[in-house]
Structure formats: structure tokens, C-alpha cells
Amino acid sequence: MSKQISLRPSLKTVLKTSTVAGLAALMLSTGIPAQVVQSFAEPVKVTAPQVASFGDVVDAVSPAVVSVRVQSDVKPVSNEGDGNSFNFNFGGRGFDDLPDDHPLKRFFREFGGPGGGQDGPRADRGPHRFGDRDRDGKRRGHMRPTSQGSGFIISEDGYIVTNNHVVDDGAAFTVIMNDGTELDAKLVGKDSRTDLAVLKIDNKDNRKFTYVSFADDNKVRVGDWVVAVGNPFGLGGTVTAGIISARGRDIGSGPYDDYLQIDAAVNRGNSGGPAFNLDGQVVGINTAIFSPSGGNVGIAFAIPASVAKDVVADLMKDGKVERGWLGVQIQPVTKDIAESLGLAEAQGALVVEPQAGSPGEKAGIKKGDVITALDGDPIKDPRDLAKRVALIAPGTETEFSLWRNGKSETVKVEIAKLEADQQASASSDQATPDEPQSSEEELADLGIAVSPSDDGTGVTVAAVDPDSDASDRGLKEGDRITSVNNKEVKSADDITKVIDQARKDGRTKALFQVDTDSGSRFLALPIDQG
Predict the structure, then answer these.
(1) 3-state SS of 203-246?
(2) Which amino acids are annotated catalytic?
(3) Which terminus of the chain has a smaller tally of CB atoms within 10 A, N or C?
(4) Domains of the chain and any CATH numbers
(5) In sequence order, which residues have a C-beta less than 8 Å from that of residue 441 and are 6 or more positions away?
(6) Please, what is the end-to-end C-alpha distance for the chain in angstroms?
């Protein structure tokens, strides 16, 4: 009688087998083929260094990051009228100006009302109005939520930093803490030029809040880690991580653009939220995203801590920001412009026009001057000049270094206060150029023809060779040339004389000031041919 092999080892034997290797040995001892046993390999073991977690940073800073809910006063319709019309005002914006995905717009689209279907469930209920009546019988508006964003606490008594565009036009503000607690807040001040605002929690209980501090963003390098915490899409505290992908970004939002570009996932609702370094300090305030689709595509922009720190301090002090004002229209100094002016480097800010009555004009700054330094410190470009002038206290006398007529000069300017209707780099609209006159003169070397202007100011461009450098640099028929190398011109002969002198001086380009429909600017044209 043959011996029967049991494939069921005792429980005691199995319990002794604690490893895959032990199990394989047991299986071999029971007669299971080796090919089957080999399929029970050891699990993969990774011995590479583990990536550090952001958990410690998030645990520390999360109590200081808040969601900001903004409500605006919705104005009711007046007592007059047919009673069937609506007059909604969402924070100064009409119904049609609300985003398509705005909850109020979706509500009225479904239930009738402004922009909604005429067959909605409420359409058959007759005229209806919102708002209570005051003692005079007039209706008062109701508060309606209009926006949500993010913010962060910067003091133990509850001062909060967020974006101006989050709170703009708001009438009431609610702060939602990390633990879900809702607290009322008031607006302390806001600054549209840097898109910053400060709120203060109504701290009736004298609570001490967890708060965060600003980092020294001058030490921030491209490639450094950042952790963004905020309230995207109203979801509440959300954490994403990325790196600083660029510095000094100009996104065309104003003269003080100097954004950090980060690649952490930032979406709608993250506005006003902080971007932290790994020490838990705020290196930037998330304010904008580049997004063709409306969602995150990996490019976001944050206001640097160095900018925010000064603005926030001013807002906390008296609710507003005072900036210095020079009052000149400026443009960059390109390599061609620098060559035409005899400058060694393409840096500084070229003065297109000083504003009438401005501090710059009073001090003698003229069009065609290049501002090269402020109190001895070199100016890199117009943006650098605008930011540095803005930081000067009104009434301060400041020394500006200028490049004028091939040599350096200095002027002293008493900086004034920038008012609401003034710009850091102001420009004025130009009148439509006069129609070209019949007495055209050709400047073949430049590829243009010009004629005298009716008012005697400059010459009008009558024609431009499409294959010329003038055309490549944007000179167009109807533009007006007012000066060449900072010398006024009234005829083609005047232009020729200035260019001939520039050639004798060894210049290969000449600087033309041109008035167009959109304003005045300088451009450099080659003059070394002929």
C-alpha cells in the first residue's frame, strides 16, 4: 500500500513559518515542484533615501491660514416702476458681470430672475422683491455672498493679510478658521496697486491667535520648495507643494509688478493665501494664475514678502499706502537705444515726457533723458525706477543721475505724493496726427518719406518702405516724428542734419521720438548706411 503525501502541514508548522523563504522550504518538503515554489519571490525592497515630508510645516502653519468669505450689499429695486424688474448689485458688479459658474448666476438661471429662463419655477409667482423696509418705508438691501478667498494671520490679535481683489466692494467679511470656527472681521485697509488688503478679526474674547511671519525673500532662490495653503474652489484648507520657478515676473498688472512664479497647484479661491518656505515663513501671497482653461496649469504668481511687508505695515498703521511720485512717462532702454545715445549699457529708464507740473518737470528732467541712478544706486529698468520712487516718503529730496547729450548730469528732485488719479509712470493721450501734406520729402536711407505737420510740431510720416528697418521697428504712416537725438525737427532737412552729425560722432543709430495714436515713444533707427 503506497504512502499518501499530505499537502496540509500542521497549524503548528505553518505558524513557525514567518517568512517567504520559510514557506518555500515547507512547500518543497511537501513535494510541491520547485517551479511552483519559485513563483513566491521576496517582495521589492527600496533602500533609496526617503523624501522629506511637508507634514511638520503644514501642522505648524495651518492654524494661521484662514478662508475669507465676502458679502456685498445687494441693492433692492426702488418703489417706483412696474414691479417686475430686478436691480441687483453684486459688490458694484451687475448680474451679467458675474462669472458663468457663480452660484448666484446658476441659481437665477434655474429659478428665474436676472438672466434666468422665463419659464423657471418662480416665473409664475408674480413680482417679488428682496429686502426689508426701514422706518421710512424704504427697502433695505440684503447681504449676499459674492466671493471667497484665502488669507493668513500675521499677529496674535488677529490681523489678516489677503488680496484686494478678494475683498474689493465687500460690505461684510467672515473668517473661517482651520477648525471651522467662523469669526467676523472688518476691513482695515486695501491697496489696489499691489492687490493687498488687511482685515482685523473682531476679537471680543481677546483670543491669542496662531500667526506666521514674512520671510526674507531676497534669500529665496529659483528651485526652492514652497508650500501653498488656501481655500481653492471653497473647499477649505488645502495644501499643495512646488518650487519657485522664476523671480521678478511682470504680468502687466501695474508698474510695481515683481512677482514670484511658483509651480504649486493654485486655483480659484487660493487668492490671498500664503506660500511658505520650509521654515514656515511666508515668502509670497498667491494672487494670480496663468490659465487658459480657468484651472491650474502649473503657473501661479505670488506677491513677494518684501513688497507685502511694507504695504501691510502701512495699511495696519493708517489704512492706506503713501507712495512717492516723480511724474514722468518712461520706457526701457534697449540695446539699440543705448547705442544711439552713446550709453555703454542698455539699462536705466528713458524719459518719454515729464508731466506738466510734476516734481520731475520742476527739477528740470526733460524728454530724452535717461535716468541712470537714484541716490547713487544704478537703475536697472523702468520697473525698478517706479518701485524705488514709490518707496520714497513724499517731501524727500532725492538725487537723480541723468544721461543727457552724451554726458552724465545730476538733478535734485523733491518727491511728491502719488494721488489716486496719478500713475507712477504716467502717459497722456496724444491727438490724432494730422493728415500728411502734399510736400513730401523722401529720406531714402531711413526708408521713409515725411512732410511738415500743420501745427509746426515735428514732421508727419507720409510713407514707410515695408522692407525697411523703420517698418520693422513699428514706424507707421501717420506717426509724427518730433525729435531726433533729442533735437526738435520740423523738416526732412532737420532730420538729415542731425543724422549727419551723429555719423560724424561715430554713432550707428539715431534716437527718434515718435507720437502715435496710443502715446509717445522712442525708437532707434540704423543710420550707418549710405
Answers:
(1) CCCCCCCCCCCECCHHHCCCCCEEEEEECHHHCCCEEEEEEEEE
(2) 165, 195, 271
(3) N
(4) 1-41 (no CATH), 76-138 (no CATH), 145-201 (2.40.10.10), 217-318 (2.40.10.10), 324-417 (2.30.42.10), 441-526 (2.30.42.10)
(5) 449, 450, 451, 491, 492, 493
(6) 118
State pLDDT tens for residues 93-122: 444 555 555 554 554 454 444 444 433 333
In eight-state DSSP terms, residue 139 is: B
CA distance 199 to 187: 5
Distances in Å between the Cα of 335 and the Cα atoms of 343, 346, 359, 523 are 9, 5, 29, 11
Candidates 191, 178, 248; CA nearest to 220 is 248
Average pLDDT across the chain, whole number: 78
pLDDT surpasses 90 at 12:
no
Beta bridge partners of 189: 198
Contact 348, 297 (CB under 8 A): no
* Residue-wise pLDDT tens digits, 491-501: 888 898 898 88
Instruction: Report whether pLDDT(91) > 50.
Output: no
Amino acid symbol at 250: D
Q: Name the pLDDT band for 36 (thresholds 50, 70, 90).
A: low
